[in-house]
Amino acid sequence: MVSSLSEWFWNERLWFPEGLGWADLEDKDGRVYAKASDLWVVLPIALAFLVIRQIFERLVATPLAAVMGVKEKVRLTVSHNPTLESFYCTTTKNPSQSSIDSLCKQTGCSERQVQRWFRRRRNQDRPSLLKKFKEASWRFTFYLLAFIAGLAALIDKPWLYDFKEMWQGFPILTLLPSQYWYYMIELGFYVSLVFSVASDVKRKDFKEQMVHHMATIFLISFSWCVNYIRAGTLIMLLHDSSDYLLESAKIFIYAGWRNTSNYVFFLFAAVFIFTRLYIFPFYIIYSTYIYPMTMYSPFFGYYFLNFLMMVLQCLHIFWAILILRMAVRFLSSDEKVEDERSDKEETDESGEEEEGVEKKGAVQNGHAAHHNHRKTE
């Protein structure tokens, strides 16, 4: 059954125009073509990224954080309470009012004491500012280098300037070494993100980010297997052009450089909207939808590719709405701009300091209120 399904899936009638097929992509006369088996090299590349990331965070990101003045808050620890700890670990981190009442009876604590215990316990589990800074620094470095490398690989290619060239000679398009490494490194990076998800900061949109990573891996792999490589390199370059700006805005947020982070965020928003809502739909999608039909009769691969492109464009519109909402909120209230897409921690709190402690004046939480890195809702 598996063999029959594989044979049906790889049927050349699905993925190629009439009269062309897999035989046309066999290496010959010194011409090399993309093959599905090439994707196995992604696994060692992903593992190499995990090692490089650990070295980078220790030798580069940590000293950089110190230079930029990244400061941690002093977090209050909770007193040992087996009943509350058991409820926190096995039931929920955010108990309802009825659960709080029940816990008060079991522990003999007041309602305020139970609420304070859970608030402090959640704060203990929140990822440190340094950890978030190091993650953002790593992603910023990769996206920036990937954008530069992609631009260098495509700067002399005719399809960067004339999108019709993406389809000239399709699917018999020779694979260039620069295209090979651009694809493998991009794909390896996203696979490494999936591997590191257990140790990374867990955010409120964790599920959405996992779907995004898996979809990205699928799209890159699919375009490689059916030789949509020219279109794929353009799409990757387009996405890398704004991602490093978002990560740099986060870096400045964590360092407390509010004005700088806001300026970079607005630059990111402008580049994102220009590339994802103008270049992508009116040039990239137009070229994948219109130009192939001037050369070939419609085939399944053509429809499937454009379906995926439209799904991607819907995601672009969704993210753009969130970005614009953040920008409008900032302009209207002078709040600190923060990434609403992927930087809201799962355990994020209201940001109020521990009750009772402030009243007594015994403990100050390390920083004034304007240094609080709480995500705005």
UniProtKB/TrEMBL annotation:
Annotated ranges, domain Homeobox = 67-128
DNA binding happens at which residues? Answer: 69-129
Q: What is this protein called?
A: LAG1 homolog, ceramide synthase 2 isoform X1
Please list every transmembrane segment annotated in the UniProt record, as residue ranges. 39-56, 140-160, 180-198, 210-229, 264-291, 303-324
What is catalyzed by this enzyme?
sphinganine + octadecanoyl-CoA = N-(octadecanoyl)-sphinganine + CoA + H(+)
Compositionally skewed regions (Acidic residues) per UniProt: 345-356
Keyword check for Nucleus: yes
Q: Which organism is it from?
A: Salmo salar (Atlantic salmon)
Question: Which residue stretches does the UniProt record annotate as biased composition, category Basic residues?
Answer: 368-377
Pathway membership, UniProt: Sphingolipid metabolism; Lipid metabolism; sphingolipid metabolism
Q: Where is the composition biased (Basic and acidic residues)?
A: 333-344
Q: Which SUPFAM superfamilies match?
A: Homeodomain-like
Topology relative to the lipid bilayer, per the entry, is: Multi-pass membrane protein
Q: Which InterPro entries match?
A: HD (IPR001356), Homeodomain-like_sf (IPR009057), Lag1/Lac1-like (IPR016439), TLC-dom (IPR006634)
What keywords sit in the KW lines? DNA-binding, Endoplasmic reticulum, Homeobox, Lipid metabolism, Membrane, Nucleus, Transferase, Transmembrane, Transmembrane helix
